[in-house]
Write a structure and sequence with these properties.
Elements: E1 16-20, E2 23-25, E3 28-32, E4 36-43, E5 54-62, E6 65-70, H1 76-85, E7 92-99, E8 105-121, E9 133-139, E10 143-145
Antiparallel strand pairs: 1-2, 1-7, 3-6, 4-5, 6-9, 7-8, 8-9, 8-10
Length: 147
Amino acid sequence: MPQTGKRDDPYQQYNFLVEIDGVARAGFTECSGLTTDTDVIDYREGNDSTMNVRKLAGLRKYSNLVLKHGYTADKSFWDWRKKIINGEMDRRSASVVLLDEERNEVLRWNIREAWISKWESGPFNAKTNDVAVETVELVHEGLELAT
């Protein structure tokens, strides 16, 4: 294979942005749950004499997107969660954007119909000087890698 002089290094996992309704939200220390899977359905036709089981695709499922960040004076996640608690369904779009070392976008995962199913605070511990962390879980109805 001829060398082109250009390295194709993997991207580092700390260099990402999260956008909600197109607005970049800064300061996330962790983002996990970019997962999709499909149930497998075993099926055998009644007249199949070989007794082979066919594998069919079933329901598509998406894991919750878990976001963690240090507390600031911004209460927008709590306000969004409070709407859900009060029975007002507030679905939003979101994107997770992976950046290269020059902070250029290289990959984007788009999430649709997201809403906060879980909000968590803390823990608070007077014996450490760690940053106070807010955690939110977004359920959603679709994940795609934008091209």
